[in-house]
Amino acid sequence: MSLIVQKFGGTSVAGADRVRHVARRIVATHRLGHDVVVVVSAPGDTTDDLLGLARQITDRPPARELDMLLATGEQVSIALLAMAIHTEGAQAISLTGAQAQIRTERVHTRARILAVDRRRIDRELATGRIVIVAGFQGITDDEEITTLGRGGSDTTAVALASALGADLCQIYTDVEGVFTADPRIVPEARKLKEITYEELLEMASSGALVVQTRAAELAMQHRVRLEVRSSFVDREGTVVTDAMEERRVVTGVTHDTNVAKISTTGVGDRPGAAHRLFRAIADRHVNVNLIIQSVPRKDRADISFTVAKSDMAAAVDAARSVAEELGIRDIFSDDHVAVVSIVGAGMISNPGVAARMFGALAAQGINIQLIGTSEIKVSCVIASDEVAAAVRALHKEFELDRA
Ligand code: ADP
Ligand code: ASP
Ligand code: MG
Predict the structure, then answer these.
(1) Atom number in ligand 1 closest to CA 153
(2) Confidence of residue 217 (pLDDT cuts 50, 70, 90)
(3) What distance in angstroms lies between residue 279's CA and the mean position of ligand 2's atoms?
(4) What is the mean pLDDT of residues 308-320?
């Protein structure tokens, strides 16, 4: 007998029929003799709808109250799913993040999980019940409800799988696995049979929504056996592996439209300038992604970087706060940008991949504004209205539509 963690996303539990369908799949796994812990997201667009309600009240909802509100979405799903499992003739119990003892830091709306106390879950499993845990939420040591950032139910699932020493963590979603690109943009995108932890992490962090970045990171750290597959059809999905036999140069193309670009000009070219600027940004809890600094002329350089759209105002504010000290002349911000990336473990040993990427974008007349690279990723900032064309061109250039 083994312990399996199964996570079902919002689309998979949108409406009574889908909840019943999911319940049947869970019960089928349970009847094979496995212990099953289930994690669910809020139904359909619930989280967006709740955010919309909050915005009708205020432009700046207090983060604590936002978490209180958003956490209700997942509570709807766990209760309905537990009821549906009962009607299928199995025993189940629903638990909120707090009841399941998912402890987080006290950073509202984007808390990280610190620890999971497994005792309650173990007790419930020991009575033969299926345990259903609300995704995306946790509790701080001073009993405050937190949420884990958009897409956070994936992270709940991986954290539980790791804490419980599960044999397998399955992410059930509205696509059949991890694809070579977002199938909504590239209809010819192919399902990947396998992907390495590193590739999954780079794809997630560069915009592939299919698994939250933090979930990919935790899975990699703790080597959680992870699988992404469809809630709707019973087919093999994508298995996350340590290393792969097949050596492909580029595994996937990703895009991220939740991006803003900030440019500062005339930054004094002296040690510590970048430190001051990015310290001011970090102090506002803003994450910076790509950074580029121009070659200094007359002791002055330009520094550009990208942040999430929602952090643009805070980043500009941070740059302003050090403008005088650093001699910054202008601060420009632009949120009509997007990042398109190619990811692949085989890039390390294949020169010329980046050049091919730039060539394919140039052939479409797409201008590159910033470039960033890691060992297994190349990213370009481009205009947001060119992103679909860019993704399709790159998918074609690297022949990802061919098996
Ligand atoms: P869930 O509600 O199940 O968590 P999400 O909407 O968060 O589902 O994530 C699944 C979506 O991710 C898919 O519908 C797909 O459009 C999108 N997606 C983006 N990039 C990829 C990719 N490379 N492979 C698969 N899906 C992707
Ligand atoms: N319901 C949350 C969201 O929409 C968490 C999740 O879906 O994973 O972001
Ligand atoms: Mg998701």
Answers:
(1) 4
(2) very high
(3) 30
(4) 95
Note the pTM of the prediction, 2 decimals: 0.94
- List of long-range contacts for 116-121, beta carbons under 8 Å, 24+ apart: 116/159, 116/160, 116/163, 116/164, 118/163, 118/164, 120/95, 121/37, 121/95, 121/160, 121/164
Atom of ligand 2 nearest to the CA of 151: 8
CA 4–ligand 3 middle distance (angstroms)? 19
What atom in ligand 1 is closest to the CA of residue 10?
A: 2
Using CA positions, which residue lies closest to atom 1 of ligand 1?
9
Return the closest-CA partner of residue 395 out of 346, 356, 337: 356
Q: Which amino acid is at 392?
A: R
**Which helix (DSSP H) or strand (DSSP E) does residue 68 occupy?**
helix 63-87
Token couple for 245: 């036999």
Q: How far is the CA of 172 from the centre of ligand 3 (A)?
A: 10
Nearest to 240 by CA among 218, 259, 264: 218
SS3 (DSSP) at 262: strand
Contact 369, 260 (CB under 8 A): no
Residues near ligand 1 with C-beta < 6 Å?
9-12, 41, 151, 173-175, 178-179, 181-184, 208-210, 252
- Round to whole Å and give the CA distance between 398 and 341: 12
Residue 383 parent element (H or E): strand 377-383
